Amino acid sequence: MAPLPRRALLAALLPGRGAQAATGLWIAVLDLTIAETLIAMGRPPAAMLPRPQFSAGLDSSLPDGATALASGAQPNLELLASLRPDIILITPLMNRARPRLARIAPVTVIPAPYRPGLDSWGQMVAFTRSVGTAIGDTGAAERLVADTDRHFAVLRGSVPAGMPPLLVIRQWDDRHARVYGRNGLVQAALDRLGLRNAWTGPTNAFGFAQVGIESIFGLEGRLVVIDPPFIEKPVAASEYRMSGLWRYMPRRWSEEVVRIPYVFHHFGALNDSRRFADALVPRLEVAR
Amino acid sequence: MSVVLPSGGGQGARLCLILGLLVALAASVTLHAAGGVAHGLRALWAPAAEDVPALFLHYAWWPRLAVSLLAGAGLALAGTLMQQLLRNPLASPMTLGVAPGANVALMAATLYAPAALEAGREWIAFAGGGLAMLLVFAIAWRRQLSPVVTVLAGLVVNLQLGAVAVILLLSNYEALSGQLIWGAGSLAQNGWGGALYLLPRLAIGAILMAMLLRPLAILEIGDAGARSLGIPLGPLRFAGLGLAVLLTGSIVSSVGVIGFIGLVAPNIVRMAGVRALPARAFWAALLGALLLALTDLGVQYATGCFGIFLTTGAMTSLLGAPILLWLLAGLRPRPGLPRAADAAIAHRHGATRALLGGLGAALLAMMAIGLALGQSGEGWAWLTPGSAGLLEWRLPRVLAAAGGGTMLALAGVLIQRLTGNPMASPEVLGISGGCGMALLLAVFLLPAASGGMLVGIGIAGAAATLAALLLLNRRTGFAPERVLLTGVAVNALFGAVQATLLARGDPRGQEALAWLAGSTYYLDAASGVTALGLAIALTIAAGLFVRWLEVLPLGATVARGIGIPVLAARLALLLLVSLLTACATLVVGPLSFVGLLGPHLARLLGLHRAGQQLAGAALAGALLMVTSDWIGRQILFPWEIPAGIVASLLGGAYFIWGLRRL
C-alpha cells in the first residue's frame, strides 16, 4: 500500500489537511499538555482533544485544520482510525487504551511533565524535549525551551521587589479551595520568577492539594485567586466574598487579593506556565 | 409535645454513652493541643481578635462540631422516617433523589449560570433537591405514594440524575471538580453560617416529626390495619416523606452528601432491640449526631497528621460499613422484616412466546444496526465492504454490551427472587462494588497496570467480596435481608473509596469515572466474544434453577415444605449471581444498573413466572445495553457517552413511564 497518494487524496478531500501533509508527519495527540506543547513548537497536531473554552483569554479550541477527537478520557477510536495518523502521542494516563491505539498507529508514551521529588521546571523541559524527539524535531523543542527561558527572564525583571510569599488558589466555594504547590506548573513558574510559594504542604502528582479553608488560615502571605471558568467579567477584588474566616485573612495577608483569569491549562507544561506568569506578573504590579 | 426520656432504650443508651464519651475525649484532645480546654471554651463565645488559634476555634472548629452534631441527628431522623414510611430497612435519606437533584443543580449552575452561585449555593442545592423530590412524588402519586412504588421511583430518579451528573462531569471535568468535594460531604466550616442555617430547619423538622409519631407508629400494623383505624395513608406518607426531604435537603445543601448515617443509625438502634418508634427516633438521632461528630473529629485529626484531604461524608461510610458488618455478624436474625409486596406491579401478558420472540428479534436488529450504522468525520454511513475495517472497533463493543447486559439482568432476576426485595440488584449486593473498588484503586495506585492485570485485580476484588458475603452470612443461613445489608455495607465502602479519590480533583478521576459509568471503550474482539459466550453459558445455567426461583420468593418455610434445600439453594444462587456480576462488571463497569432495571422491565412487560422473567430480562438487558452503547457512540459524535449512562437514562425513562401507567 502506498501511503502518499492516499494522503494526497485525503488532503484534497478534507479541508485543512494540507498543512499537516506538507510537514510530512500526521500527529494525533490524546493529551492536552502534549498538544499545547506541540502548538507552542509550531507543529500543531492533525487531531487532538479540543481545549476547554474556559476563558476569553485562551485561543480557539483547535488549531486551524485540526480534527477534534472529543474530550475526556475516551477519544473516539473509529474517528481516529479513519484519520490514519502516522503517530499517536499519549501520556501514561492513557495507558489502558494503548493496546487499542496501537492497532491504529505507533504509540509514543511521553512521561508526565512533573514527577514528585524532582525539579518541576527541569521536568517540564525534559517533557518538551521528549515531545520533540517523538515527532523527530528536536530543534523545535530546543527553540521553545530557549524562548520560554528568555521570556521568563524578562518577566522576572518586572516582578516587584520584596513580594511576600504567594498563595495561589482556586476557590471552590467559601469553604474549600485547591492550592497549588510542589510538583506543578505554578510552583515551577513561581521559582522561575523568583517568587516564593506560601503553600509548602503536600501536593499530589499534578501539583495541587484540595483543602478546607482551615488549612490555609494560619499561613502568611498574599492571596492569588484564579477566577472560576465561564465568568465573563471577573468580580472586582473588593466584591470578593469575605465572611467568617475569610474576613480575618486579609488582615494577616498584608495586601489585597490578586485575581487572575482562568487562562491556562492547570496541568500544562512550558507554554501554560508562561500563560500563568503572563497573567500574574502585571497584576502584582498593579495591586501594589 | 413532650419528649419524656423514651423507654426501652437500654442498649441504645449504652451505645450513645460510649460514643458520647469518645466524642468528648476526642474534642478535649484537640482543644488541649490548641491551648487548653478552658481557652477553647472561651474561644467558643468570645475569641480575642488577634488570637489566631482562638479565631480558628471560634470560626472553624466549634461551628464544625456543631454542624456535625446537627447534621448527624437530622440525617438519622430522616432515615428513621424513611424506613418507617417505606417499610424498607435499606431506605435512607438519600433514597428520594434529593442529593443527586441538588448535585445536578449545582453543576448546572457552575457551568451555565456561575453568577447564580454567588447568591448562595445552599438555595440552588435546595431547589434542585426539592425538584427531584417532586418528580419522585409525581411518579408515585397515583399509587398514593405506596412504599414499593415510591422506593422504585426514588431509585430511578436517583439513577437518572446521577447519569446526568456523570455526563456533565465527563465533558467538564476540570470545571466541575470542586463539586466532587461536595459529593464527598465535607464538614469544613467558615464561620457560624452553616450551623445557623441548619439549626432552625432541623428544629422545625424535629417538632413536625414529633407530631407525626403517633400515626407513623400505627403504620407498623400494615396498610389495611392503618386504614381501618382511620389513618389517611396518602396524606400521611406525603407529609412524612416531605418532612424527610426537608431534613435531608437542608443538610445536603449545606454540607454535601453524607449518606451512611441516615441508613445505619436507625438500623443500629433497631438491631440493639429498641422497638417503639418514638424511642427509635430519639436514640437514632442521638446516635447519628455522635457518630458523625466522632467521625469528623477523626477526619480532622487525620488531616492534621497526614496532610491528606479527607472528607467526612466518605469517611463516615468507610467507618460505618465495618460497624454494620460487625452488627450483622453479631446479632441473631430478626424475624419478619416487612416484606415489600409488589403484587401490585402486575398485569399479565398473554402471548409470552410472541413477546420473547419480539424481544429477540429486536435484539438481533439492534446488534446489526450497532455494527453497520454509524457516523464518521463525513456524516452517517452504512457499513460497506470497503469500510469493513470499522468492524474491528464496533464488533467488540456490540458483543460485550450484549453479554454484559444479559449477565447483569440475569443476576438481577436471581437476586430479586432470592431476596424478595425489589430494590435488590447485583449492584446492591456489592459484588460489582467490590470489583469496582479493586479496579479503581488499581487505576490510581498502579498507573502502569496492563489490561490483563486489571482483569485479574477485578476478579480478585469480586471474589474477595463474595467470600466476605459468604463468611458473614454463613451463620444466619444466607438470610436474604442480611445478605442485602452486607451488600449495602460493601457498596458504602466502594462509594467512600470512589468519593475520596474523586474529591482529590486528580485528572485521573475522569478516566476512572468513564469506566465506572459503564463503558465498552477498552474492549478488544477477544473480550467481546468471551463476554457474549459467558453470557450464553450462564443463561443456560440460570435456566436450571427455575423451580427454586419460583418458590424461594414465597419464603423459607414454604420452600422447605415442598422439599427445597433452602441453604444449598441460596448458596448456589448466590455463587451464580456473583459469577454473573463479576463477568459483567469487567466488561461494562460496576454501575450500569441494568441489573436493577432488567428484571423490572421484564415484569412491566408482563413476564412474571421465573423462567419467563429470566428469558425476558436477559433479552431486555442485552437489548437495553446494545441500544445504549450505540446511542452513546452516536448521539454526541465524536464525543462518547458511556453505555451504562445511556442505559440508566433509557431504562429509567421506560421505567418511570411503566410506574405511572399503573
How does this model look, in words?
The complex is a heterodimer of chains A (288) and B (662). Chain A is an alpha/beta fold and 288 residues long. Chain A folds into two domains: 108 residues, Nitrogenase molybdenum iron protein domain (Rossmann fold), CATH 3.40.50.1980; 131 residues, Nitrogenase molybdenum iron protein domain (Rossmann fold, 3-Layer(aba) Sandwich). Chain A has a five-stranded parallel β-sheet with strand order 3-2-1-4-5. A five-stranded mixed β-sheet of chain A has the order 8-7-6-9-10. In chain A, α5 links the parallel β4 and β5. In chain A, α6 packs antiparallel against α7 and α7 packs parallel to α11. Chain A is globular. The termini of chain A are far apart. Chain B folds into two domains: 303 residues, Orthogonal Bundle (ABC transporter involved in vitamin B12 uptake, BtuC), CATH 1.10.3470.10; 285 residues, ABC transporter involved in vitamin B12 uptake, BtuC. In chain B, 74% of the residues lie in helices and 1% in strands. A two-stranded antiparallel sheet of chain B has the order 1-2. In chain B, a hairpin with a 2-residue loop joins β1 and β2. The two termini of chain B are 40 Å apart. The N terminus of chain B is likely disordered. The chains are: A alpha/beta (288), B mainly alpha (662).
